[in-house]
Amino acid sequence: MITDSFNRTHTYLRISLTDNCNLRCFYCMPEEEYEFSAASKLMQVDEIIALAKIFVAEGVNKIRLTGGEPLVRKDADKIILALSQLPVSLTLTTNATRLHHFVDVLKEANVQSLNISLDTLQPDKFLLLTRRNQFKEVFDNIQLMLQNNFHVKINVVVMKGLNDMEINDFIEWTKDTPVHVRFIEFMPFSGNKWTSNKVFTWQQILEVVESKYTVTRLQDDQHDTAKKYTVPGHKGTFAVISTMSAPFCEGCNRMRLTADGKMKNCLFSKEETDLLTALRNGENVLPLIQQSISSKAKELGGQFTNDFEHLHAEEIHNRSMITIGG
Q1: Can you tell me whether residue 243 is helix, strand or coil?
Q2: What are phi and psi of 217, to 5 degrees?
Q3: Any idea where the domains of the chain sit in the sequence?
Q4: pLDDT-wise least confident of 18-22, 24-28, 99-103, 201-205
Q5: Contact (CB, 8 A) for 94 and 70
Q6: pLDDT at residue 177 in the model
Q7: If you ran DSSP here, which 8-state letter would residue 9 be given?
Q8: Hey, what CATH topology would domain 12-324 get?
Q9: In angstroms, what CA-CA distances link 3 with 48, 56, 60?
Q10: For the sheet containing 216-217, what is the strand order?
């Protein structure tokens, strides 16, 4: 088992397949003209599988594939099918623009749940946020996944003054559609223009929802990042990921592997451990994994606290979100 100094056992690995994406969301990608990593610097299929097997042998039972956008990688299907042979629950986070090409692959790999990023239900605002006119493709593919009986979670990064006025539109969507909306507090990363006054908190989100709906709290699991709710009678549910106002680090069981093979023991950790170079050099990777987890901070990468109103983004040392993996 992979356990840190706070007795947290890590059973969940997030693997980024690429730092490339076909959308340009400002809070994830610093600018339009972005220099992506050369293919030779990224983990190759056999290297992803080799590293995943090491983690699985140490108790990992869930793997999530992320990006960038994982499905823009040309060999994404090979990676998905290869990882599906491991004794893990396999899932992925996607912007849904290419999902229609992967329905059969996901079914063959027994992927049952998908996280889909969608920050607005308005086509014009989608274009503003992503700098791409692909709202219809995304929305159609969400419907396609539901029709094929996938469990669909919708990730909504809520930003004050930008899309907070759409919160109840998303709640209304859950009335007749079995989508599971997850509102995410805006988090600081390199180049994403984060300021504390753009954060719309868990309590503020609840106040908006409760101004129109009766809300019931659902039971959260030990390792849940989201606080879950339902509106009685709705087919779907909603949740809030309160990273900034009420962190959930106490039950953390997550590790991250970037597309270039660096291990991060926390989304906000400034330290990284180069597993890919060690693997390519024929070194034993497991001690590096154990050392990384043993040095994991108690919360938020050791870089800040939930007193986010006094946080200055330039004081945080980290990558841009697209190079970490969603």
Answers
A1: coil
A2: -75, 135
A3: 12-324
A4: 24-28
A5: yes
A6: 97
A7: B
A8: TIM Barrel (3.20.20)
A9: 22, 14, 11
A10: 216-217, 227-230, 237-241, 179-185, 151-158, 113-117, 89-94, 62-66, 12-16, 254-257, 262-264, 273-274
